[in-house]
Write a structure and sequence with these properties.
- This protein is mainly alpha-helical.
- The protein has 3 helices and no strands.
């Protein structure tokens, strides 16, 4: 039988390196925006071979921006 690994849905699961980065980010005072977000956007843009990438605070925000960019809005 194949061994499975559970993915926790309600609690974060980070390794030690990720914990250190989280603490460093919290200690920097930059929770939103700031250098880590800019670095992530640049790395993600390179990873996806995209000229532009924007980090959002949630999937809802990302979907809203995608719909707005596509010209889709409320019916009038």
């Amino acid at each position: 039988m194949k061994e499975t690994q559970e993915i926790p849905l309600t609690r974060p699961a980070f390794d030690d390196a990720e914990k250190e980065l989280l603490i460093a980010t919290l200690d920097s005072g930059w929770i939103v925006q700031g250098p880590r977000v800019a670095e992530f956007e640049a790395l993600f843009g390179r990873f996806t071979n995209s000229a532009h990438s924007v980090a959002t605070s949630s999937c809802t925000t990302a979907l809203h921006l995608a719909l707005a960019r596509a010209g889709i809005g409320a019916r009038r």
